[in-house]
Amino acid sequence: MNKVLETKRNLDKIISTIGDLPATPAVIATLMNLTSDINADIEKIIRAIRADQSLTAKVLKMSNSSFYGRAREVKTLREAILILGFMTLHSLVIATSTQGLYQKSTNSRISGKLWEHAFACALASRLIAQEVKYPYVEEAFIAGLLHDIGKLVLSQKAADEYFRIAQKVEATGGAFADAETAAFSFTHADVGSLLLGKWSFPGELIEAVGNHHQFPPPEGALPAPLVSIIHLGNFTAKKLGVGFTDYRPDNLSSLLSARSLDLDADRLAAVEQKLREHYASEQELFKLKN
Questions:
Q1: Domain boundaries, the chain
Q2: Per-residue pLDDT tens digits for 206-225
Q3: 212 and 234 in contact (C-beta within 8 Å)?
Q4: Contact between residue 253 and residue 263 where contact means Cβ atoms under 8 Å apart
Q5: Most buried of the four, 11, 123, 215, 272, by CB within 10 Å?
């Protein structure tokens, strides 16, 4: 069989067995709809959040973060929502829902590390988007959160093989994409982009997830801003030291993604410092319970 056709067939087989997004609690589904509408009734959002004690705690805790510069403690959901804004709240709800995918994973040997890196990449991507004044900051957060969703799928569908891959890249400092290609003839980015396509995510987000390792792009072309943000966010998160100890470049400013975003070493160092502060403050919101 033609190798390209065989690879496509294997990819399609994996995706076809996944099904739709896992069912989410009614409160999450309701909030995802409400917070995507800038004209939504804030009272409806408050009532929906109150129905979930864990989410209520996360919203209040995030609004009291030092990054929002509050002089006094925020104690009400109304004030918290006004501080965070609908888009940040929408990202928080999606992160809560996505975390459920990792909590339900049967491969707890690696799901914790995958989640730590996904969350760090989401925060890094948001900070980079803010730094370069990308107009869709929360889209960058969501893309960063989902960029390695293909790894979670492969760790579930080929658990033993993927555990060996994870061990190999940590032992050698190699790249997941290279080890995956050797084992499967495709990568987690291929799986992730196909999966998000099946879930009807926006095209820009699918492109960012599918191409976050595809650098440099074809000769003469510049990567789309969101692709560059996620590529750079991925490696910035790796420097945080959470998740897997796989390949990471020594100099972020040398990356094409950094150059295409016009980010020099000084600006990147400032982003790294902010990331450490944000991760230290917000990681308690989303610790996996194994």
A1: 23-103, 106-286
A2: 899 998 887 666 565 677 89
A3: yes
A4: yes
A5: 123
